[in-house]
């Protein structure tokens, strides 16, 4: 069990945290967003936050979507664009991602995942012989898919929301790449179908939400489904060379629970990391981002 840190980079900085909010810089824009885990006091004053922020997300408390994601509105200053791009540097590739302000406080990337982008790029590059195949489940706007592709993998990207697949496709084009296989489907159903087909993957990336719905109304509750999904995912891993990344943001699923789930299904493996993912703000407070487990045998 360990603490796994994602460091800031030129286009991203966690400036301040506290009072259930976080102040972040994405490229040239500074945003204020809700952060339920930041229970301590802010370091900077409210006046300083307001002066720095070009956009502030405010919850509309009486509105929630069906998957319990809080809705709200962005309040922007005049110079704030609706869309912009940022970059993340890897060894031989600069990942470009289009960002935008969504009604659910998200902006198109989870910056804490940058540690995993580095891990994916390095691991895919280490797999020799046949062309690596990577499956990205609950794949959002495609950062991990694009990094896998840039590192030389054949990539299958599974996402239940059409607008997110469109966004991910735009991100692929932004990086002057092509070839990702887009799957608009419930992740659980797709995994079971791949088992029946006998397909295998060298890498599987999972970022399951607490709640979700597939395109045909399939219901996902993490606590009810994660154990069976991991059992199915194990059947899809290539027998010789493989890696797995599991991110779980749900507060009730600790790193200990995540490791117990994994060990019970996969047994003991050599090159495994399990712990709490975090980023540190400019004043030294460490903001947790849930459980992360990753391992590789390449």
Provide an overview of this structure.
There is one protein chain. This protein folds into 2 domains: 2-84, Immunoglobulin-like (Sandwich); 111-297, 3-Layer(aba) Sandwich (Rossmann fold). It is built from 7 helices and 17 strands. The protein has helices at 46-52, 114-126, 143-150, 162-174, 187-197, 222-236, 255-266; strands at 2-5, 12-18, 21-26, 29-34, 55-64, 70-76, 83-89, 94-100, 133-137, 154-159, 181-184, 203-206, 211-213, 219-221, 242-248, 272-280, 286-297. The strands form 4 sheets. The chain has an 8-stranded mixed β-sheet with strand order 1-16-17-15-12-9-10-11, sandwiched between helices. The chain has a 5-stranded mixed β-sheet with strand order 2-3-4-5-6, with helices on one face. It has a two-stranded antiparallel sheet with strand order 7-8. A hairpin with a 5-residue loop joins β5 (55-64) and β6 (70-76). The longest helix has 15 residues, at 222-236. The radius of gyration is 19 Å and the shape is globular. Mean pLDDT is 95; it is low at 62-67.
Feature tags:
alpha/beta; Immunoglobulin-like; Rossmann fold; eight-stranded mixed β-sheet; five-stranded mixed β-sheet; 7 helices; 17 strands; globular
């Amino acid at each position: 069990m360990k603490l796994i840190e994602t460091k800031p980079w030129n286009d991203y900085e966690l400036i301040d945290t506290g009072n259930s909010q976080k102040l972040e810089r994405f490229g040239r824009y500074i945003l204020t967003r809700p952060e339920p885990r930041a229970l301590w006091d802010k370091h900077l004053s409210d006046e300083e936050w307001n002066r720095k922020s070009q956009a502030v997300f405010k919850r509309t408390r009486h509105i929630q979507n069906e998957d319990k994601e809080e809705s709200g509105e962005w309040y922007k200053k005049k110079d704030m664009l609706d869309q912009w791009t940022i970059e993340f540097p890897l060894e031989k590739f600069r990942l470009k991602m289009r960002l935008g302000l969504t009604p659910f406080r998200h902006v198109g990337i989870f910056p804490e995942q940058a540690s995993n982008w580095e891990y994916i790029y390095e691991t895919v590059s280490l797999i020799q012989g046949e062309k690596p195949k990577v499956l990205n489940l609950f794949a959002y706007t495609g950062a991990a898919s694009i990094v896998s592709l840039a590192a030389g993998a054949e990539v299958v990207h599974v996402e239940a929301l059409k607008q997110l697949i469109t966004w991910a496709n735009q991100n692929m084009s932004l990086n002057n790449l092509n070839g990702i296989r887009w799957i608009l489907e419930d992740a659980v159903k797709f995994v079971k179908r791949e088992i029946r087909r006998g397909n295998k993957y060298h890498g599987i990336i999972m970022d399951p939400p607490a709640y979700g719905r597939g395109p045909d109304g399939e219901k996902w509750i993490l606590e009810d489904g994660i154990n069976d999904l991991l059992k199915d995912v194990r059947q899809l891993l290539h027998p010789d060379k493989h890696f797995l990344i599991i991110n779980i943001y749900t507060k009730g699923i600790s790193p200990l629970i995540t490791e117990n789930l994994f060990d019970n299904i996969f047994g003991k493996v050599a090159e495994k990391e399990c712990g709490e993912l975090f980023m540190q703000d400019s004043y030294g407070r460490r903001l947790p981002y849930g459980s992360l487990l990753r391992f590789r045998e390449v």
